[in-house]
Inverse folding.
């Protein structure tokens, strides 16, 4: 059982806001002759050396200082990937899919690069990376250093009361902090990620012949947690921004405080919008529409279904399921929450699934769930869901170091009460997780990577159409020379 509950799993899948094409991750191991198909085979360097990889991309393993203010501490490796556009003006658009813990490399290879390029009219070369501790990049972000099997096997106690949940979270945070007193975990916060982006941009500018690489501008697109990266960039380096797109914003101030208590406040509205669309579509085009006379009638049926499942979970003994199972109210809300990340892609599945549950068809529910669940592909670096969950836990704790407002169980209870007010259907689940992520943690980043406080300048621009224009003269598309290796 994974320690990270369903809402974190949803946050880790934040890039589903941009659904990709059918996965082609197998290309990691099938690359044609002459092109590397694993980051393990790409040499690392302090300079930026692009290597042809994965059929039509270029990859680089860039050595970066653990601490840019104290290079004597050593270095780590950040993995980068690029897809060139035939019509590019010579500008890189850096992208992060979310998390913390989302792999930009896997997202690019899964079709995301093509989609972003299409969205931006082919004007930009699309570049992404795995932030420190994620997938192909170094720094082992784990609460079980040197014991990956222990991390996979660890399961929370399943406690039910707020007192028990808080106590367990504090114990886990203390455990994790103690386990990392001599590791490099503290060098993996969001500020360090932004500094890596800046370093990359300067190296690329110098490679392109820019006479003032230290003044090179960053063009960036971030989704979900990726918007925290964009906000951090804007706050710390406002003079180094070309354009920033922040899509599906996380409240950056709350993130750095350690409790994002408004994160699900729009979730109920999204479900109600589903009821509106379903009613307008009618039973022919929306399986859950039934004979309901209004969106409110659909909502009433939905609440009745949840109440029924809460009292009597639906049982499944279908042989195809591999064993007996039950479908609970919480399980249904878990799944619906994940579908809300991409409503246009998943509303039709949601309608079919709810119709099946209302009719007592557990098999159909599981079929829909399977059809909409991405395969857990750990890739060549064995980046499992558990590993991604540990990244989320640790990066969040590093970012909030010294600012976490919950000091005791009474503070936690108050936070739960406030969060539950934000969402009828999802507040309870979220309240049982987010306020606890930083409990007990004492991991502190170096001073140079500690976010200083409130932003003096924050950019919130939801529409990429206005951001992906520039009055700068188009530059001649640069020619990059890949490394000889």
């Amino acid at each position: 059982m994974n320690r990270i509950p369903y809402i974190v799993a949803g946050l880790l899948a934040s890039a589903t806001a941009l659904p990709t094409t059918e996965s082609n991750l197998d290309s990691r191991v099938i690359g044609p002759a002459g092109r590397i198909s694993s980051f393990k085979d790409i040499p690392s360097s302090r300079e930026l050396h692009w290597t042809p990889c994965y059929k039509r991309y270029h990859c680089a393993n860039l050595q970066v200082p653990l601490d840019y203010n104290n290079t004597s501490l050593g270095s780590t490796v950040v993995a980068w990937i690029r897809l060139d556009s035939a019509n590019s003006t010579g500008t890189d658009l850096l992208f992060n899919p979310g998390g913390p813990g989302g792999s930009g490399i896997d997202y690019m290879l899964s079709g995301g690069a093509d989609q972003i390029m299409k969205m931006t009219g082919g004007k930009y070369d699309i570049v992404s990376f795995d932030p420190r501790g994620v997938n192909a990049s170094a720094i082992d972000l784990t609460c079980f250093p040197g014991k990956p099997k222990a991390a996979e096997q660890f399961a929370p106690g399943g406690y039910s009361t707020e007192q028990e949940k808080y106590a367990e979270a504090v114990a886990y945070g203390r455990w994790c902090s103690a386990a990392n007193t001599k590791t490099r975990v503290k060098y993996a916060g969001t500020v360090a990620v932004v500094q890596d982006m800046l370093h990359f941009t300067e190296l690329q500018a110098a490679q392109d012949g820019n006479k003032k690489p230290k003044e090179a501008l960053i063009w960036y697109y971030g989704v979900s947690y990726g918007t925290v990266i964009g906000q951090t960039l804007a706050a710390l380096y406002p003079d180094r921004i070309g354009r920033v797109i922040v899509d599906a914003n996380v409240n950056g101030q709350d993130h750095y405080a350690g409790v994002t208590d408004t994160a699900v406040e729009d979730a109920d509205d999204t479900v109600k919008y589903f009821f509106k669309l379903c009613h307008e579509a009618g039973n022919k085009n929306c399986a859950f529409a039934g004979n309901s006379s209004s969106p409110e009638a659909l909502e009433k049926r939905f609440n009745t279904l949840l109440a029924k499942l809460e009292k009597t979970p639906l049982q499944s003994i279908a042989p195809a399921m591999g064993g007996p199972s039950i479908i609970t109210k919480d399980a249904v809300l878990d799944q619906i929450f994940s579908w809300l990340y991409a409503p246009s892609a998943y509303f039709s599945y949601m309608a079919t699934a709810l119709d099946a549950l209302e009719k007592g068809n557990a098999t159909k529910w599981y079929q829909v769930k399977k059809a909409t669940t991405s395969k857990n592909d750990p890739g060549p670096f064995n980046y499992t869901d558990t590993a991604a969950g540990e990244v989320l836990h640790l990066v969040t704790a590093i970012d909030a170091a010294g600012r976490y407002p919950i000091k005791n169980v009474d503070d936690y209870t108050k936070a739960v009460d406030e969060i539950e007010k934000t969402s009828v259907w999802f507040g309870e689940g979220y309240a049982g997780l987010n306020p606890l992520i930083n409990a007990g943690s004492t991991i502190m980043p170096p001073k140079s990577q500690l976010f200083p406080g409130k932003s003096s300048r924050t950019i919130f621009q939801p529409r990429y159409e206005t951001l992906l224009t520039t009055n700068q003269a188009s530059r001649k598309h640069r020619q990059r020379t890949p490394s000889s290796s």
User: Anything to note?
Assistant: The radius of gyration is 23 Å. DSSP finds 16 helices and ten strands in the chain. Residues 6-143+183-250+447-467 form a domain with the Rossmann fold fold (CATH 3.40.50). Residues 1-33, 455-485 have pLDDT under 50 and may be disordered.
